[in-house]
Design goal:
This protein is mainly β. The protein has one domain: Beta Barrel (Porin), CATH 2.40.160. The chain is 5% helix and 52% strand. It is built from 1 helix and 20 strands. The strands form 5 sheets. A 12-stranded antiparallel beta barrel has the order 1-4-5-6-7-8-9-12-13-14-15-20. Strands 2-3 form a two-stranded antiparallel sheet. Strands 10-11 form a two-stranded antiparallel ribbon. It starts with 8 loop residues before the first helix and ends with a strand.
Length: 292
């Protein structure tokens, strides 16, 4: 506040410009506010007791180290990469690494949001040819487009495979290859993530895979979990289960989710490991993760 002493007309004239200078923000010593950057880059790292993809075991019950990064622009466009170790027996002959690359666009309208994009799964070092996709098919891969919508803590996402689903070809009820394409396989994901406060959260998931041209390939998976944020480290415990056909005890029909501990290429023939298990059986999974 400026005090103006009205003793004489001269003193008033001198005081007036002093007031104008004090009220002019350009004349203050405070630095101008910096504009927020439209770019955001984050990384993530996690250790999980078992890697489950759409409810199906990808590491034959063993732990996985996972991580990646995400770039987001204020306009809503984003790109990212995510990686994890896997078991070759999960359908990636000779492979032990999964690399995902994705990009898309997100927008929000109050409590509502939309998400559309594409994702490419790649397994370097793996051999897709012995899965029936041809000699020039290279490594196992999968490409999908997706469309999602969300409301508050609920989200619904639809995925559509634009190529053979993880390089697989059709299989009949006897386990024989039909040579049919699995392009057009679809997956529906309904999820909920609710913040309880004080670092606690609960989550739930229900998914459905519609496998194209694979006998008993369709299944439903589900998840219930709880999380706790401790100084940026998120501890999680969840139960994951499915009704996938994974009977390894001598079922009379093809069981696509009975996995072995390894898959390999022996002179162009798909060869299995010595141990088998139901890859869709229910299991408790614990994890610790951090975003930075």
């Amino acid at each position: 506040m400026n005090r103006i002493v009205l003793a004489t007309a001269l003193s008033a004239a001198i005081a007036a410009p002093a007031i104008a200078l004090a009220d002019d923000p350009a004349q203050t010593d405070s630095p101008p506010a910096e504009e927020a950057s439209p770019h955001a880059l984050t990384g993530n790292l996690a250790l999980v007791s078992s890697y489950r993809f759409r409810g199906i075991d990808q590491t034959f019950g063993k732990p996985a180290l996972q991580g990646g990064f995400d770039y987001a622009h204020a306009s809503g466009f984003y790109l990212g990469n995510w990686n994890s170790n896997v078991s070759s027996g999960a359908g990636f002959p000779e492979g032990n690494l999964e690399m995902d690359f994705y990009g898309g666009y997100k927008a929000s309208f109050g409590d509502f949001g939309i998400d559309l994009g594409a994702i490419y799964y790649y397994y370097p070092g793996s051999t897709a040819s012995i899965l029936g996709t041809g000699a020039n098919s290279g490594a196992v891969h999968n490409a999908e487009v997706y469309l999602g919508a969300s409301w508050k803590f609920l989200s619904l996402k639809y995925f559509y495979a634009v190529d053979d689903y993880f390089s697989l070809r059709g299989v009949n009820s006897l386990g024989q290859s039909t040579g049919q394409s699995t392009r057009g396989t679809q997956y529906l994901d309904l999820s909920a993530n609710y913040d309880l406060g004080d670092g606690w959260g609960i989550n739930a998931h229900l998914g459905r895979l519609f496998m194209k041209n694979v006998s008993d390939g369709d299944y439903t998976d589900w998840k219930l979990g709880v999380t706790k944020d401790i100084s940026g480290w998120v501890l999680a415990l969840s139960y994951i289960g499915t009704n996938a056909a994974g009977d390894c005890s001598g079922a009379t029909t093809y069981q696509p989710y009975c996995f072995s501990n390894s898959n390999s290429d022996v002179n162009g023939v798909l060869t299995y490991g010595s141990h088998f298990k139901d890859a869709g059986r229910g299991i408790a999974v614990v994890s610790v993760s951090r975003t930075f």
